Structure formats: structure tokens, C-alpha cells
Amino acid sequence: MTGEDDLPGRPERPDYPRPPQDPALARRLREVEAEIFARRPEHAVEPTLDRISALAELLGDPQRAYPVIHVTGTNGKTSTARMIETLLRARGLRTGLFTSPHLSNVRERIVVDGEPLSAEAFLASYDDVAPYVALVDEREPLRLSFFEVLTAMAFAAFADAPVDVAVIEVGLGGTWDATNIADGAVAVVTPVSIDHTRYLGFTIEEIAAEKAGIIKPGAVAILGQQPLAAAEVLLRRAAEVEATVAREGLEFGVVARELAVGGQVITVRGLAGEYPDLLLPLFGDYQAQNAACALAAVEAFASGGPGGEPLGEDLVREAFATMTSPGRLEVVRRSPVVIADSAHNPAGMAASVAAVIEAFSFRTLIAVLAISEDKDVPAVLDQLEPAADELVATRNSSDRSMDPGKLAEIAVGVFGPDRVRVADRLDDAIDVAVGLADEAATDGLGGSGVLVTGSVVTAGDARSLLGRS
For strand 330-333 and strand 337-340, is the pairing parallel, antiparallel, or unpaired? Predict the structure, then answer.
């Protein structure tokens, strides 16, 4: 088990963009970010690829300038995409990585060769696409969205770099996601569960059908562990487009796993070989499964499908040891331990809670929850309640965040009135939770910790408040 005094520092890498020092550059960057954010938000989906296709065509279809590994699913997409990119870079390839949403800074989303775009590169990418964005805005009945513009910027930046391969995370769903104008040589589908029902459907089958849209003719489909209903839909799609399929638990998977200081040691059976005793500095069984999917995806990319030569064992071991996943069960403070986590739906919260129970020896856990109003909040609370001694209901910086008072009312029905507190601001909520954790430790109740969770925005806000970004 992991205590607060034996948590080593994770391997550092520039996950977050450095702020520009030049005042004029910083001002211009703020102006461009404001222009992008003023567009229709990424969660307001209008299901068509017409706008992004028109923009990409004007740009010369940059998404066709390099091979793509495309990643979708309900939970684990960002972690898996980051792991894939780390393995590819370890093989000496120049990589592009596009993920969403961001934790603290929009430039996090577009990464070239392991580093987010600099302020200068971000502005250059925007200036490259802006004239064509204006043309499409004039021609189409609806202006390009925030996410569509960023997707075009990423595709263009990767072509300009140029990259050897791009790892592209779907924003929402798959079929109608702006990233789906790219044809992935490898399509990765992490576990599918219920989320974003307004846009994707209310059943596992409907949601899986949307996500299956990234599996293209002749591709290799890497499927994480799926509910039976989702697996049937995904396999049907793969058969229709004659894609090769590799399934976690059958063609590849985690063979062994044990806890280690600061993470876990796992043995993974890949598509081309077995890789023993890999140190993964991340917590939770689900991160081990994400790592297995990432390894299988890179093997498939390297050989064109299952089989082929295994990746070098030393290369894989070194890559795994450097893997990071900011905002996913990330320790952002010690004494007491404060963990920032992005779980935002019932399945994600269940995985996070299981990982906290497994990896940390907390006698007392205080949860801080800020979550979007459109989520299945009662179900999320049901998953959190068995692990948390008390809950502090609050809000994050998003305008979609549920009112703390309303959240507390729902939480009382799950936790009871004596275990729920309210704070209008996240910084105050963290202070309250840290105070409760310190009090529990002073009372001799053993190790205590704080879990700040409920959304990517919540995790990002917590990181910023505690000086991690």
C-alpha cells in the first residue's frame, strides 16, 4: 500500500505549456484564445462532418499527410493516447498528439514530439487556418465550432512539423466527431459505458455504434474490455469494413499486476510478445488496462496488424517508466495527500474509487466533488460514498458546473446530512477538506487524504490551485 511519505516524484516532462514572457506575445495569445473560445463549445454537437471537411479541403487535407492512430471510448481515452504517443516516441518517431479536453491551458491539446505547442507555434497555426475558417463560416449555415477549429489547427500543425505519426483522441463519440475526417490505420476503443446520452444515445448499443465510426476499412481495431452489448456492435462494424480485430483479454492483455511504490508493476501480453515486470508509475487496474491497449496499438502500427516482431523489451520498459497522466489520480500535494482526478461518470468514478482503495492506505478520505449538471450525479455519488468519510460539495470554473447547494442536496440523500458540507468555491472546498483530513490525523485515525474529483475541469482547477500546472 502507498502512504503519504513514500510517494516518489513522478518523472517530469513538459506536459503543460510555458507562459510567454513577451507581453505583446502574451496579449496576442489571449486575444486568439478568446476568439476560439467565443465559438460554439465542444459539448454543443451538431452531427455533421461537412464544416470540418470543407475546412480541411481548403487546407490541403493535412490529416492525410501522416498515418493516424485514432482513439475513442468512454473512459481512459486521454491516458491511452498519451501512452501510445510515449511508446511511439521511444521508438524514435516524431509524433503529434491531439487530446481533449484540456486541464489548464488550451495549448495542452496539441503536442508535437512530446511538447505542447509554444505560444508562437500556436499563434502561427491559428494564423494559418484563420482565413480558411472565415471562408467556411461564410459558406456554411453554422459557423465552425471551437473544437472544429482546434482540430484543424492540430492537423495543420502536425503536417507542418512534420510528424511521422499522429495520435488523435476523439472529442465526443466517433462517427460525427471532427477528428473522424482522418482515417486511422489503427483504431483504439477503450471501454464503453453510459455518458453524454444527449448526443450519443441512452443505451450501450447506441453509444458503441457512435464510437465504432472511427473503425475504417482495412484498419486494425484494438478493443479494450467491453460490455457484451458494446463488443457485439464494435465487432459487427469491424466485420462490415473488413478491419482486423484484437481484443483485450483474448489477443492481448495484462497477465500479472502488483502494487509498487508510486504505481504498479505489470506484465503485459502483447500482439507480438510478452513484456514482463514493467514499472507503470500510475495507479489503478484501469491504467494497467489502458497501458495494454496502448502497447497493442503500437505493435499493430509497427507491423500492420497482429503478429510481427515484438517491440524491444528495454524500449517498452523505459517508455512505461516515463508514462504520465496528469489529472488522473495524480498526487498534487502531500501531508495530507491531495489527489486530483478527472472521473466524471459512474464507470469512471467506480474505477477511481477502486484504485484509491487499492493503492493508498487512507484510514480517512475526504472527497471534494465539483461536477457538471448534465451528468448522472446520483450514480456518481453512489460509487463515491463507500470510500469517502465526508464530502465537500462545490463548483469548478466551468459554467456547466452544478450549483454546490443543489449538489449537496443530492449528496445528503446518499451520504446522509452529517457527512456533507458545502463550499461555494473550489479553493475553499479544498481548504475545508484538508482541515478535516488534518483533524482526522491528529485524532489518531491513521493516514488521511483528500480526493478532488468530478470532472477534467475540477482536476485542472485543483492542479492550478496547488501549483502543479
Answer: antiparallel
CATH number for the domain spanning 66: value is 3.40.1190.10
Q: Which helix (H) or strand (E) holds 268?
A: strand 263-269
The CA distance from 396 to 37, in Å, is 18
Q: Indicate the number of domains in the chain.
A: 2
Amino acid residing at 127: D
Q: Which domain holds residue 390?
A: 330-465
Strand partners, 79: none
Domain end point (choices 321, 341, 358): 321
User: pTM of the prediction?
Assistant: 0.92
- Dump pLDDT digits (tens) for 458-467: 999 999 999 8
Closest CA to 158 of 67, 50, 32: 67
Of the ranges 14-23, 65-74, 94-103, 357-366, which one carries the lowest mean pLDDT score?
14-23
- Which residues, 6 or more positions from 132, have their beta carbon under 8 angstroms from its beta carbon? 55, 58, 59, 152
Place of cell 507491423: 303
CA dist., res. 284 & res. 329, Å (int):
9
Q: Does residue 9 form part of some domain?
A: no
First to last CA, the chain: 27
Instruction: Check if the beta carbon of residue 191 is closer than 8 Å to that of residue 73.
Output: yes
Residue 316 has phi, psi (to 5 degrees) of -65, -40
Would you call 90 helix, strand, or coil by DSSP?
helix
Question: Do 151 and 82 belong together in one domain?
Answer: yes
